[in-house]
Design goal:
five-stranded mixed sheet; 5 helices; two-stranded antiparallel ribbon; 32% helix; Rossmann fold
């Protein structure tokens, strides 16, 4: 876990690590943030459900690879579902316990709500959320969105 925090988010430098500074939480965890002992987490991601939006490229794809290497179950969402499907074999070979990929445009509130409501029961207990999707230039802020139209 510590390696993921450093490599994916760049939140902890080696210098901070050596001086014993705490690492800020990166992800929304269902479980409490683990105690750090000498910089190493006592928390396993094996078989934990990790939901990554914008997982088809860039930071989202890198996160998927990192969490796969830790043995997580990957819940992957993106607009370009064909790219997600192309990544599945690589992620399984890297160690992902299971993968569920689906098309999702996070700009459409109704689509997001429907996608979460329609998750199979075994995928409902999301442990980690990497909310990576979306290029928001020119869009309303979430709290200023227009829920009646379904567009944020």
């Amino acid at each position: 876990m510590h390696r993921i925090l450093r490599s994916v988010a760049g939140l902890a430098s080696e210098d901070s690590h050596r001086r014993g500074k705490s690492i800020p939480p990166l992800l929304a965890l269902r479980s409490p943030i683990p105690h750090y002992d000498r910089g190493m987490a006592q928390y396993s991601l094996k078989d934990r459900i990790v939901f990554i939006t914008g997982a088809s490229a860039g930071i989202g794809a890198a996160c998927a690879r990192a969490f796969a290497a830790e043995g997580a179950k990957l819940l992957l969402a993106a607009r370009r579902v064909e790219r997600l499907e192309a990544m599945e074999a690589e992620l399984l070979q890297a160690g992902a316990a299971a993968i569920l990929s689906f098309k999702l445009d996070v700009q459409d509130r109704a689509e997001v709500e429907a996608a979460i409501a329609d998750l199979p029961a075994e995928w409902n207990e999301i442990d980690v959320l990497v909310n990576n999707a979306g290029l928001s230039r020119g869009l309303d802020k979430v709290w200023e969105g227009k829920p009646r139209t379904g567009k944020i």
